[in-house]
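yo

u said u wanted the structure for the complex thing, so here. seqs first:
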Amino acid sequence: VNFVQKTSLIKRFQGLTFAFCFLLLLVAAGTYLSSQTFLVNLRDLNDVNAVTDLAIQGTENIVSARLTLEKLNSTPNIDSKQLAPVYFASHQQADSAIEQAIKLTSKFPGTAHLLKDAKTSLEEMNKLSQHIFELRKVDSPASRELIPRDLLLVKQFELDSTESLRGVQIAMRKTGNEIFSSVYHSRFLPFWVALILAVFFSGFALFLGLSSTRRVERSLLNLLEATEKVAGGDLNYQVKILSSDEIGRLSMAFDEMVRSLALSMQQVQKAVAIRDEFLSIASHELKTPITSLKMQMQFARLMVNPKKAPLDLEKLGSVLDMSNVQIDRLTKLVDDFLDVTRIEAGKLTFDFVQTDLSKMIQEVLNRFHDALAAAHCEVKTYFPPTLSVSCDPFRIEQVFVNLLSNAMKYSPGKLIEVSLDHDDQFAVLSVKDHGAGIPIEKQKLIFDRFERVFPDQNVTGLGLGLYISKQIVEGHHGELSIISSPGQGATFQVKLPA
Amino acid sequence: LKIFLGLIFIATLLPIHRARPAEEHLFFIVNEANPVHELTTKQIADFYYKKNRYWENGTKVRFFDHRSSSAERILFLKQILKKTSREVDLFWIEEKNSSGQGAPLEAPSDDLIASSVASLLGAIGYITDETTDLTGVKKVPVRDQE
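structre next:
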C-alpha cells in the first residue's frame, strides 16, 4: 500500500512554536514602538518647555538692554562706558537665547518665523543702540536731540522683538498643552497595544493549537480503537486514516502490521493443520509396517511352537523376508525424518566424487526390477553408455529412487520413461510417467514439506520425498523441475552441473 | 479785579481753545519713501490693532501712538477707532494674553513721532500740529470706511 505523507505533524508543531515566538516578538516590538511614541512626545514636551524658557529669558534680556539704554537719556551725567558692557551683555544673552530657541524649534515650524522676526528686530535694535552710544560719545546739542528719537525707535524694535517672543511663548504653551494632552491620553497606549496584540495573537495561536490538537486527538482515538479491536481478536479491523501526517503514516503502518499479523496467523494455522496431518500420516505410516511386523513375528512364534507340527524352514524364511521389508520401510521413514532434520539445521552435507550416472541408474533399475514388475510398470530407458558428473552418488541415487518410486505409486501399470542427456553445462536426468498428471496449482506446492499431490487417494507417503530431493539437487547447484498437465502424466527433470 | 478775572477765564479757556483745532485736524503721516497715497479708516484701525502688520510692498508696519491721556489720542480714538480709551486698553490686555501683541508705542509729542516716522520706512503716526517739521514724511489723506 502506497502512502504519501503530505503534511508533517512535527513540522506543524514546530511551525506553531516558531509562529508563537515570532508573535511574542511582534508584541514586544509593538510595545516598544508605542513606548517610543510616548518617549518622543515627552522629549518634545521637554523641548517646548526649553523654548518657552529661552523666549522668556530673551524677553527679559531685551527689556533689560532697553532699560540700560534709557538710563543714558534719563541720567545725563552717567558714563556711557559703564553702561555699554551691561547693555551688550544683555543683548548677547538675548541673542544667544533666541539662537538656541531657533535650533530647538526646527520641529515646530509655526514658531520659527516668530523667532527669526525677534532676531531681526533685535539686530535692528542693536544697530540703533550702538548709534545711541556713539551719539552719547559725541555729546553735542545736535546729538542730544537725536537720542530721544533713537530711543523711541529702540523701544519700537524692542516691542517687535518681545512681541515675537511672547508669540513664541504662547505658541509653545499651546503646543505643550497639546503634547501633554496627547501624552496623558496615550499614557496607557503601550499597555493597550501589548494587550490587544497579545489577545489577538493568543486567540490565533489558540485557534491553531486547538484545531491541530482536535485533529490529532481524533486520529489517536481512531488508532486506540483499532488497537483495542485488534487486541480483541478482530484482525480484519482497519484504522480510519484521517490525516496525511505522521499519525496517518502510523495508522497505515498499523494496518500493515495487522494485515501481516493476520497473514502470519493464517500461516500458523496452516502450519498447525499440516503438522496435525503429518502426525496423522506419520502415525499411520509408522503403524502399518509395525503392525505388519508384529503379525509376522506372531506368525513366526507360532511356527516355532514345539507342540505343533515340525518347523517349516521355507515358510519361516518367507516370514523373515517379509519382516525385513517392513523394517526397510521403517528405516526409510526414519531416514526421511533425519534428512529433513538435517536440512532444517543446515547440516546436510555431500561427498562429491566423479560418478557414472548411466551405471548408477541402471543399477537402481535392476534393483527395482521386482518392484516395477509388481507395479506392472514397463520402463523405457534412453541414456548413453556412460555419463560422468561430480556428485554425491548416494544422495543422487536417493533422488532417482524417489522419482522412480513416485512414478510407480502414481501411475501403476503405466509406462515409465527414464532418460539421461547432457549439454555443455548440465547433465539432465528425466523420469516421465503416464499417470494422471499434476494440476498446475499443485505444481508449485509439491516441493514443500508434507505436501502430497493426492492426499485423499490411498497412496502411502509422508510428503517429504520431493522436498528432500529438491534440497539435495539444489545442494549440488542444480535444478529439480516438473513438466506436467492433467491427464498427460508428469516429467521430473534433474539438472546437475556437468 | 474784573480784568484779572477776565484774564483767568480766558486762561482757563485757552487749553480748550487749543484742543479744539486738534479735533478738527488729525493728520496721518508716513515715511516719504512709502508708496501709499491714501488710507482708509479701516486700514488705519487694522494697522493699529496689528491685524495687518505689513504694507502692500511687504514693509513691516510700525504704528506710533500718542500717550493715552493726550488730546490727540482721544481724537484718534474717537474719529478713527470709534472706541473709548478703556475699550482699547481692555482690547490690548486681552490681545497680550492671547497673541502676545502689545499696544503700539506711545510717543510724547508730534515732533518725536514725525522724526521717528521719517527714520523708519514702515512707520505711520498721526499728528495734529501743523507746524511740526515734516521732513522725511508725507501726509496721507484718510477716507472714512467702515
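The radius of gyration of chain B is 17 Å. Residues 79 and 142 of chain B are 11 Å apart (CA to CA).
cya
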